[in-house]
Amino acid sequence: MTTDLVAFVRARFEEELEKARYAGDVVGRQPERFGVEPEDAAKHARFSVAAAEARLVLLADTVVPYLGTAGPGGRNAEFQLRLLAAPYVEHRDYPHDEGSAHQPGSPA
C-alpha cells in the first residue's frame, strides 16, 4: 500500500506542477484577459510553481526516505504520506488500503 500511495501522491503532485506551469504561461501571456496586472500574474505563477515543486521535494526528501523505518520517524513519515494523500481520497486512482480503517484526522 505504501509504495502505491507514494506513486499516487507523486503523480498528483507532478500533475499539479504541470498545471501550475501551464496556467502561469497562459495567464502570463494574456494577463488582461484574466483581469490581472502583468506583475501580479507573474508573481502568482511563480508562487504556484514553487508551491508545487515544494510538495514534490517534501515527499521525496522528508517522507519517502523514512517510510518503513522503525520508531517514531517511520510512523511520522507514514502519517505525513497519508496527510499529503488525504485531499485526493476521492480520486478514482486512489490506492485504498482495504485492511486499514485509519485515515488522517480520525482516531487511531
From TrEMBL:
A Pfam family this protein belongs to? DUF6221
Question: What's the protein called, per UniProt?
Answer: DUF6221 family protein
Q: Which organism is it from?
A: Streptomyces glycanivorans
